Every structure is written in C-alpha cells, then in structure tokens.
Amino acid sequence: MADIELLDVSIRDGNQSLWGATGFTTAQILGIAPAMDRLGLRALDFTSSTHMGVAVRLHREDPWERIRLTRAAMPNTPLQFIGTGFRFVSWEAAHPEFMRLVYERLVANGITRFVVLDPMHDIDAVFATAAMIRAAGGEEIVGALTFTVSAVHDDAFYADLAAQMASSPNIDRVYIKDPSGLLSPERAGTLVPAVLARLSGTPLELHSHCTLGLSPLTYLAAAELGVEVLQVACGSLANGTSLPNAQQVVANLRELGHTVDVDDRLLAVVAEYFARLADAESRPVGTPREYDAAFLRHQVPGGVVTTLRRQLSELGLEDRFDAVIDEVGRVRAELGHPIMVTPFPQIVCSQALYNVVADERYTNVSDQVIRYILGTFGRPTGAVDPDVKDRILDRPRAAQIMAEPPPPTPAELRRRFPRGVSDEELLLRAVMPGDQVDAMLAAGPADRHYNPDLAPVLGLLRELGSRPDSPDLTVDKPGFRLELRRHERMDRADA
User: Fold this and answer.
1) How far is CA 434 from each of CA 67, 153, 431, 439, rounded to the nearest angstrom?
2) Residues 6+ apart with CB under 8 A from 296
3) Which of 356, 358, 353, 391 is nearest to 373 (CA)?
4) Which of 17, 47, 286, 355 has the fewest CB atoms within 10 Å of its CB?
5) pLDDT tens, residue by residue, 356-367
6) 221 pLDDT exceeds 80?
7) Cα separation of 175 and 42, whole Å?
C-alpha cells in the first residue's frame, strides 16, 4: 500500500464551486491559515486570476496583500496558483511580457507552486508558459491533463500528452484535472495506467469534482493504481459540485491500508471552522450528489453551475436554468466540443443564456465567442458548425476584433498610468476598471481578524449603526450584559 498525500482546494476551487468564488475575505482565510499550515498538506490550491479579481471587485481587498499575508501565516505549505498562461483576470489574451510580469510578481509575493492549464492542450503553449514560470522563480510546476469524454479524448490522447510533459525540464508533476467529475473508477482503471506508463517517473496527481457522485470511489481506485496526490476539500466546502471530503477520503484510504500523514485533529478543526463560517455568512454547504447522467452531455463544471444559478437569480430567470443547460450542450457541439474548463464553460454558458432569452439563437454573441471562433484561444478540438461560424463572423463586431492591435506590453501600459505605480497595481489597472482599483486602494489594508461566532452580532451592530432612529440596545442574560447607547453629537452653540 502506498503513501498518499493530500492537496486542499477549499479556499480556491471549493469556494468557486460552492460559493461562486465570492466566499472568502482575507480575514476569513487568515482565521484558519495557521491550522491548515500544520495539517501536513502537499500544497494549498490558493488562488487564480479570477479569484484575485473577485477580491478587488467584491471585497475591495488587495489580492497581492492577501497572498503575502497568507504566505506569512502558512510558511510550511506551498501556495498554488492556477492559470492558462495567456490571460490575467480579463478574458482577453495578454502580451507574453505582461504574463511574464504576472508570474514574477506572484513569485515575489509568495506563490511557489503553479498549475499550467492550457484549455486546448496546446503543448507548445504549455512549454512556453512553464518556461516563463521557471524563469520567474516558480519552484514547482504542474502540467494539467484536462479530462473530458469525447471520441477524441481517449487514453492514448492523454498518454501522449503526459509523455510530452514529462520530457520538459520545466514540468515537475502532472495531474489529471476532471472539472466536471466525469472520471469513473472503470475509466480510471485504463486511463491512469496509460498515463503513468508514459510519465517516466514524473509524479501523478488527481483532481476530480463530485458533480456526478463518482469521485470518492474514483479516488480509491486511483490510489490503488499509483496516483500519489489526491486533491480534496474540507467540511462545508466539500462534496456537491466541489471535491471529495478530506476526512472521508482519509478514512477510506486508511481502511484500504494506505498511509495518509495528516493531522486528524487539525483536519477536524479546519472542517469545523468552515462549517461555522458557512453558518455565520449564510453560505451553502456541499452535500453528496446523486448520479446525474445529464452532466455527461453538457459537462459544465460545478463552479460554473453555481455562478450560472446566481446570475439567473439576479436576472429573475431562475426558471430558465434547465433550458440554459440544455442549450449548453447544443452550443458546445456547434463550437467544436471545447473542453469545459476555464474559460470555455463561461463562454459556452454565456452564449447559451443569450440564445435562450433572445427571440433567435446567436442574435447576441459575446466578444469571447468571436475570439474563440477566430482562434485567439487556440485551435478548436473539433470542427465548428459552418453555419454558426458564418453567423458569428458575419457581423461588424467580428471585423472590429480582427482589426484590434496586439495586447499592450508592460512598458506601453506604464505610459498610460502615473509614474510610481507599483507593478502589482499596474497589473490590476491594466485588466480591471479603474474605479474598482481606486476603491480597493481607498479601503486600505484588509482586516486580519475574523471569528465566525461573532459575525451575526457584528452584522446586527452594523445594521443598527446605519439607522439613525435606532434605540439603545441592551443584551442581558445570565452572566452577561451588554449596553449600547447612541450618543447624539451636539453643535458647539448648544453645548
């Protein structure tokens, strides 16, 4: 029986899958970071450019400060960044020199482990990104084999990619990334040996979502087959459309005779913290999923499903969810079956939503769909439906995009902003609205302390403080009394 290591994804992918990527502030992360650092994790899946953008836009927090503070609180656990290599926060492709600066600043602020995920499996792009990260100081680089089910993506396809990744001096590990939870124990029984046979000793990890309810069993099969690291989530951020529950995975692995060197007491502490946070902030809790064969058709990852439901709710279109999901399968087929991993699930789901709410399909088309058809993201896996392609490209916006200048270099960007702007601020201003960055800077340093047990009381006090006609408040119970009295400011003339 083998030694199995764990990588926890709660803060990044669990948050994205169950809480729409919006669920954590810096203080909430720091509240549990020291305990997570002592768990014995292989690494912590910490952030992505999407999560960094959410920190600015929603929480008015500096994502670079968040990395630095978490690095200080977790000196023993590598923090992981996942990215495609061609974009940062924005969906538009960035200049290679811009991306080089992104990786340099990520390393300087405390990221040491990087996942290179090219959504088209363009191996040349993977090699170029890995080399860029290594030059920036990245210590551990992981190549992603993004799993999907299609006539093209057979075991030989992934085994060949694995062999190419293993040949690169800049790729240290490889992982099978199953964003839609499609990998069954039976398919793992052929896929994992095929990949391992071509890795030539390069370690293999597995990341599989619980969307179809398969991954807890697939993990046990993978451990038997030679996978060294299993990626898990903890407590309320596990299950559902997230990843398998760490405590249950550990228990099951040990039952099969595997060794998992994690601190069980601290694992329970982390799970309890996330449960208390979810309760205090009214966040949904992941629960085991029943098998849903529809996911084999549309293959939308869990985080995108959560985000789609939230967007439909904001638009008052909750009842159209099933129609949009049905349309996703149709749009994906027309676009050549892109693997449903960022940014393609977002692109496909947005187009499906446009098609459902419009009187005619493809009346509205996003810039990202146009760029996809133009090959900005790489060559589509399959052929794009010619009628759909013609409809998309036969519009003025397509001509405008084709005439756009290349992405700006960092030197060009610096000429747009005041002198003295830090590299970190420059990178944010280049891809985000200026007023959002201004609001982040005006908010000052992020809070560093959070106790979920106090959250309801603090929320009540904030609400009362916002009401000028609120009366005095007294909380009185055995052994405890709290009195809050409103003091009216008097003008000097009345004093």
Assistant:
1) 22, 42, 9, 9
2) 149, 182, 212
3) 391
4) 355
5) 999 999 999 999
6) yes
7) 13
